[in-house]
Sequence to fold (293 residues):
Amino acid sequence: MRHYLLKGHVCTLGAALLFGLMSPMCKLAMQNGAVDGLLLAFFRVSGAALLFWLISPLTPREKIARNDWLPLLGMSLCGMLINQFLYVLGIQYTSPSNACVIGTSTPVMTFILAALFLHQRVTLPRVAGFLLASGGALVLILGSGDGISGHPLGDTLCLISQFSAACYFVFFGGVLRRYHPVTVMKWLFLFAAAIALLPMSGRLVSLSSAAFSMHELFAVSYVVAGGSFFSYLLLIVGQRRLDPPTVAAYNYVQPVIAAAVGILLGLDMLTWQKCLSLLLIAAGVVLITKSAK
Fold:
């Protein structure tokens, strides 16, 4: 049982590390206007769908039960279409810092939904953990040198995106446990790509590959492969082993990763606020995971 849970924590942490780079990579991909938020989100879901279908012959062949098709569609709408399109579109209109701040609302939303609909216990250690981790994330971002300069439209889109992610974490655990992760992911991303294809077809026809610089191509490739394919593959393994609030709690790791990468690349500097936020987030995540059943 301990090994089973450990694998869930390792995979969920890996997903959080990959997700942590999404905000700066999205900004890099869109910085010169060759691709906007909607087009980047379509690349994300369609590219991930292609990758999952390419590796699906290497996994067990499974038939989806008739009663599971509707939940799979709901998962695709919440976890891929609404979440990913609104998040990437929101980043286009707001700052990465704001997106990170709003991202810390997902664990809280998940915690509340799980308590209301899954009847999970609201324990004092878990509440304390969420408060510590939320405080750490806010200290990290509010103490950054560039401050917070967003836009109400972008912030609202990111907030709706995070609520959609919370619904994805809470309401579809049963379906996730009945099938292989690749089986679930290939259908979720295919549904999202198919729904988005018609409204995006005009943008695709007018797109020219020559408009992309090497940096933009790298950023788009990361968004598709790192931020979608590998991250969701790891995330679903974590979802099968851990409860929704615990999985969502790893969202608090994402602003730490963004700050750490900035320091390593010489784009940021280590400060006492960052050290304090790291301690608060680490303590909060430990409390949350230790108090989980």
